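Quick start: read one record
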Amino acid sequence: MTISYLEQELAARPRIIVALTMEEGRLVRTRQFRHPVYVGDPINAVKIFSDKGADELVLLDIGGGAFGPEKARQIREIASEAFMPISYGGGIRSIEEVRQLFQLGYEKVVLNTALHEDQRLAREVAAEFGSQAVVASMEVLRTRWHGPRVFYGSAKKKTNHPPRDWARRCEDAGCGELIVNSIDRDGSMKGYDLELLKEVAQAVSIPVIALGGAGSLTHLRQGLAAGASAVAAGSIFVFHGPRRAVLITYPQNLLIHEEPPCTK
């Protein structure tokens, strides 16, 4: 079978991932993990991103609620509108909940708090579904005295783990991908923490996904140049203009494959 140039290009190019945050069933955006601002209905937003041809989508429930029947109903409806790979994270505590998510149409689970409480869940998911099905999410804040440290629980709980060390532990636990989410840059649209991305990408062999701070296509390219295998963003896809008016958009697929500008 002959593979066209376009098919080769699409297979080789990096992923641009839409990262949506949800709280109490509503789509919100935050700055430094605080002050959530309502931006729309998650079901409608996922439908629009599907129509615009988004590569992939990750849905993160930051409300901290239990994975109950009402949440299951809503995320089932969200998955029904997603015609692209979709991942879910938020409140997952058991392999039974993971199985339910995959039955609802999700392809990966994103673990954060569960990794800090007991890494057995990540190992169970990797053993049953493969390491590609479990993604670690790492929240990082640059502290004044100790440098970058890993947090969890929507940046409310601090650990003493440097990012590179925690990244290796997540890889050892069976996680097949790692989201590096900068608390400092969250919602700023001023660019990723490139130094952090380089440090983590060099510490592990699994793909690293950049998140936190992207505000332009240049920022996406810079994230890839820093060592990320894929780039994720939220604000750039839902806000428009200096007043941050809500306007859902998504870049043309091949724009990201342009060479990054020279920065000295």
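The chain has ten helices and 14 strands.
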